[in-house]
Amino acid sequence: SYVVTQPPSVSVAPGQTARISCGGNNIGSKSVHWYQQKPGQAPVLVVYDDTDRPSGIPERFSGSNSGNTATLTISRVEAGDEADYYCQVWGTTSDRWVFGGGTKLTVL
Amino acid sequence: EVQLVESGGGLVEPGGSLRLSCAASGFTLSSSSMTWVRQAPGKGLEWVSAISSGSSYIYYGDSVKGRFTVSRDNAKSSLYLQMNSLRAEDTGIYYCARVTGQFGGDDYFDHWGQGTLVTVSS
Questions:
Q1: Which residues of chain B neighbour A101 with C-beta distances below 8 Å?
Q2: B108 near A45, Cβ under 8 Å?
Q3: How far is residue A35's CA from residue A99's CA, in Å, rounded to a whole number?
């Protein structure tokens, strides 16, 4: 099955830029989607198709995807951005959709 | 406004069964593919199952294949997950979500319910 790997945690000071990676074999050939999940809440889509944002998601959230790594970038980080972030891709015939293990973003 | 409301979770003994429901509103369910995703306590997201708008395509994750059955009733705007032969490792929050597209390889989940908790324990 296709495996995607995320760092368990990322820490950043308010106002700085956070970058969360999602690694996979030739992931640049796939569409990568990102979800934000705050404690006790359901996941929320923040980036889809590598770079697009749903309506209502701030422009501070952006994505990129090339080679073996996709990246979610959060600019001018705010305390309210503290959450778990998951990447997701279309997998294989055995597991159609695959999530990364998640990255906990801590705002210092 | 798109709304998805799950129900049917609870405490069940190992080997038991449970049927989850997901009530959809604010959009035309019959035009949408749907999915179930679960999350074990303190763990990440795991895709469970998906069903296309007309039920022509149905997929399961390896960990639930042969034990879980997804279905839908478009007339009732509802999605279901029948879970049999439950194990302790099936414990977690189960979310239903709307899938964009019809399983073309670039689909994602644009709206999620709040989830229902399933606990498998004796």
A1: 44
A2: yes
A3: 10
